[in-house]
Amino acid sequence: MRGMNRRRALWALGAAAWLFIALFTRTGTSSSHEWSRLGTVESLVERHNFYLEESKFRGTRDRIFRNGHFYSHQLPLLATLVSPAYWILHRVGGLTISNSADVDPGYYLFVLLTNGVAFAATVVILYSTFLLAGAGAGMAMSAAFLLPLGSWLYPYAVVTNNHGISGMLLAATAHLMLVS
């Protein structure tokens, strides 16, 4: 595949993976782990700090107390990286994420814009990597879908967490190592 056809194929593959994940993405928060991560994101966007005490997710058990403030027990790097998605939903779309709704459009869209996009990008990166390694287009396509679906990347793609984005970054690093 060359030029425009390859670009279209990559976009189509990414869109197909993202739409597949959209069918299974959870619609509401359910664990202290999620509250801890979401509290950091909410605090960054709405109050420009990392403190959890003013967050609606302050009730999480997954927090630490340091220098007079509660913080998520998660490292802040990935919360910082996904904050733009929440900013778009909150500032532009007027959505927030609930800590109690079973069906929460803000949460659903946030997961789709973060881990859903990361999953789709991982599929595209794997496809490109398999092609680079000499696999045929059909084999590369099959492997690019089956590998993430048969691993922890699939369940991590349908909820908010750090693992799906980390998996995408790892796949990108492996691809870049093969390219150079």
Question: Characteristics of this structure?
Answer:
two-stranded antiparallel ribbon; 180 residues; 2 strands
Summarize the topology.
Elements: H1 3-24, H2 32-47, E1 63-66, E2 69-72, H3 76-92, H4 105-132, H5 137-149, H6 153-157, H7 163-179
Antiparallel strand pairs: 1-2
Helix pairs in contact: 1-4, 2-3, 3-4, 4-5, 4-7
Provide structural commentary.
This protein is mainly alpha-helical and 180 residues long. It has helices at 3-24, 32-47, 76-92, 105-132, 137-149, 153-157, 163-179; strands at 63-66, 69-72. A two-stranded antiparallel ribbon has the order 1-2.
Give helix % range.
55-70%
Unreliably modeled segments: none
Mean pLDDT: 92
Report the end-to-end length measured between terminal Cα atoms.
Answer: 21 Å
What is the total tally of β strands?
Answer: 2
* Major sheet summary line: 2 strands, antiparallel
Number of helical runs? 7
Strand content: under 5%
Whole-number total of structural domains: 1
Sequence of secondary-structure elements: HHEEHHHHH
Rg, Å, rounded: 18 Å
The spatial strand order of the largest sheet comes to 1-2
Q: What structural category do the secondary elements indicate?
A: mainly alpha
